[in-house]
Amino acid sequence: MSIIVASVLAGVGVVVTAVCTVLGARAFGNARLLAEAAPTAANALDEGLHEVAGRLVAEGEILAPLTGRPAAFYRLLLEQRRRNRWETVLDQRDGVPSAVEDDTGRVALLLANADVVVSAADRIRTGIYTVPSAELNTLLARVATPIVAPAGPFLRWREEILLPGDRVFAVGNAQPEPDAEGPPVWALHAQEGAPLLVSDREEAEVVRHQRRAGQRWAAFALLGAAAAALGGWGLLPLL
Known about the structure:
Largest sheet: 7 strands, mixed
Structural class: alpha+beta
Number of helices: 3
């Protein structure tokens, strides 16, 4: 094995291992968070980790940038195929101040700061943009700056939305917030090591999804560690 090949293997292996370990830990952490959070009625909240399920209520609406659909939340993902893998070009999300409403009250949440998992087929659109194209240029003119410059021959896109009235569940850290017109209102927030999770899926399905994602990232981390070890072995004669 040449020194260059060994160095590349070691460097790439270390980076892949580190990134995949972090992503895997996050996925397993999300699964544990969901499993530990007990469902709570809106009027029975206290400070701490809680899950609230009900109808999504939004203060206004925003337009999804690609399809123009009015929504309470959207996520737009653009990816390009490079070096036999999909590379993220743009991952943009936004949402209006919203709440989850059950039979006992409302709990505020900010969708723009949440990890949102959308599963309803009519809330998801996908497609392809050729690169370059007038349609792609028009889209890029009204969204955030891409992480990397788009390259051909095409980009695949995915747009997800949540609508007011959707049945959702939310898991986060419950905190009381002052209200000038009445008693404090409860809101769900992300906290260190525990994101705000919102989904229109069943909770058990999201737990399984997060655990499978964690297992995939763990497998990639092992491959990265193997590559790093192989590269390090090739560099031993230099030590």
